[in-house]
Write a structure and sequence with these properties.
Blueprint (H helix, E strand, L loop, with lengths): L1 E11 L8 E4 L2 H9 L7 E8 L5 H14 L5 E4 L9 E4 L2 E9 L3 H13 L10 E7 L5 E7 L5 H16 L10 H5 L1 H6 L3 H16 L19 E7 L2 H9 L6 H19 L7 E8 L14 E8 L7 H18 L4 H9 L4 H9 L12 E8 L13 E7 L8 E8 L2 E9 L5 H25 L20 H4 L6
Parallel strand pairs: 6-7, 10-12, 12-14
Antiparallel strand pairs: 1-6, 2-5, 3-8, 3-13, 4-5, 7-8, 9-15, 10-11, 14-15
Length: about 475
């Protein structure tokens, strides 16, 4: 891998949002920032591959335009004094920096990805968006590292859309909601009615009862003391994706994908002789209102915990039923909003107290830390498009961050008729060979699960209707380079 050059475009200013203004951290911003760690930076991975080439100068100006369009993409942290309650964001001007690297093969591309996503952040000195353009024989790859304290995966996707539209010369409509109004959403959710508060408090009590039964830990394999992340990418064919999307009556597609992760963790630990009684997977939900569901960069997603015991995991239909029942119940209470009952009052504590609370988490045996995380950006109605000159978009990957002992996370996004999965692991959790086996195991479990659900519906046979034995795809780019449209 060769660094070709690093350059910056003109500073981004703020015609669409406030310039030179300050906004307080939301409770979600604050919780994420407190969990940030140089050993495991809280970076959101978002990357797109095109069939052709991207012009670096044009891409830098497109990046500047994207930062210009979204205040949180050019915000800088102003640290609070120890006795103050909140950090603040300074929303002003930011330099749109793009680093270009030459990757002559897939190994160098993987190394560039790991380096970008593993770099520690200094939010007091830089905007929360980093961009690399990786030159590769099979087509250029735009890789974004977005700090989670500033926005969630849906917000990062919105910034990427602005960037692609600016590069292609297409119009980028301004968000339909005012930035200041959008920032009030967590506070509005926290001010829910009494009945909703009671349901959330009950859900929170259920989580606290889990202290008596700590979540399982994914067995380590080939782990090192090296900080940072590694990645494995997998992709389903259009036919396999269509088969998965067609499954009905057994929960949502996301329920099936989450159930496959539960089965994978159970099988992985069994193969390593490790205990695996209760698996707990965090599943973030987008809480933005329908009319601006994918339209504002910021933290408006909160996770819900989905658990299974060994009894549920003995049957594929049982594990899907268990996951579906939990997500259905949590949707009634407001999936993920139970965290607001904890975050809202805690946000009033002084800064030093919050930092101390994070430091004592390991002393509890990390009982409040879940086993893994699965995050899904969903089916993109509008594929990312850089214009005809760049060629078709041939792949897209996304993944959320993790922190030990939550050492493996999975991100999903469906675009161009294909489901793309990114498996992110901490090097302190497993090595590259082990991560490859874990991803392959997930694909195998997903294939068996789809086949079982297809048979249960009496539609065709597992080979023709279900996903069957999903083949591993590494490097994933080879299997998608043939696709002509996205």
């Amino acid at each position: 891998m060769t660094t070709h050059f690093a350059a910056a475009a003109h500073p981004a200013s703020g015609p669409r949002g406030s310039t030179g203004s300050f906004v307080p951290f939301s409770p979600v911003d604050e919780a994420v920032q407190l969990l940030d760690d140089d050993q495991a930076p809280w970076s959101i991975q978002l990357e797109v591959r095109v069939a052709g080439r991207l012009d670096a100068a044009r891409l830098r100006y497109a990046l500047a335009s994207a930062l210009d369009a979204h205040p949180m993409a050019r915000a800088r942290r102003i640290a609070a004094r120890r006795w103050a309650s909140h950090d603040r964001w300074a929303v002003g001007r930011a330099r749109a920096e793009l680093e270009v690297v030459d990757c002559f093969d897939d190994d160098q591309l993987a190394a560039a990805r790991a380096e970008l996503q593993s770099r520690p952040w200094r939010l007091t000195a830089a905007p929360p968006v980093r961009a690399w353009l990786a030159r590769h024989p099979g087509g250029d790859v735009l890789m974004l590292n977005v700090h989670h304290a500033a926005m969630d995966g849906f917000g990062a996707l919105r910034v990427l859309r602005s960037l692609a539209r600016a590069y292609a010369g297409d119009a980028d409509p301004a968000p339909v909601v005012d930035f200041g109004e959008a920032r009030q959403l967590p506070a509005r959710l926290a001010r829910a009615g009494l009945a909703t508060h009671l349901r959330r408090t009950s859900a929170l009590a259920e989580r606290l009862r889990d202290l008596m039964a700590p979540p399982a830990r994914i067995a380590r394999d080939g782990a090192t003391n090296r900080p940072g992340y590694g990645f494995q990418h997998r992709v389903l064919s259009e036919r396999e994706t269509e088969a998965l999307l067609a499954i009905e009556g057994a929960g949502t597609v996301n329920d099936v994908l989450v159930a496959a992760l539960h089965l994978t963790i159970g099988a992985w630990n069994a193969g390593h002789g490790a205990a695996c009684r209760r698996v707990a997977v965090l599943v973030p939900a987008n809480l933005r209102p329908a009319h601006w569901r994918e339209d504002v960069a910021g933290n408006y997603a909160l996770p819900a915990r989905i658990t299974t015991g060994r009894r549920a995991r003995r049957s594929r239909t049982a594990v899907v039923a268990s996951v579906t029942a939990q997500t259905t119940r949590k949707k009634r209470t407001g999936i993920g909003t139970g965290f607001l009952e904890l975050l809202a009052p805690a946000s009033r504590l002084p800064r030093w107290a919050k930092e101390a609370a994070v430091k004592v988490l390991p002393l509890t045996g990390d009982r409040l830390v879940d086993t893994s995380m699965f995050s899904n950006l969903g089916l993109l109605d509008e594929p990312i498009d850089f214009g005809a000159a760049a060629g078709a978009t041939t792949g897209m990957w996304f993944s959320p961050p993790g922190r030990m002992p939550l050492g493996v996370t999975v991100g999903a996004v469906t675009t161009g008729g294909r489901l793309h999965l990114s498996f992110r692991h901490l090097n302190q959790q497993m090595g590259e060979a082990a991560a490859r086996r874990f991803a392959d195991r997930y694909m195998s479990e997903l294939g068996r699960l789809s086949a079982r659900l297809s048979r249960g519906r009496g539609r065709g046979n597992p080979g023709s209707y279900g996903l069957g034995a999903l083949r591993p795809v590494y490097p994933a780019y080879r299997s998608i380079a043939r696709r002509s449209a996205a």
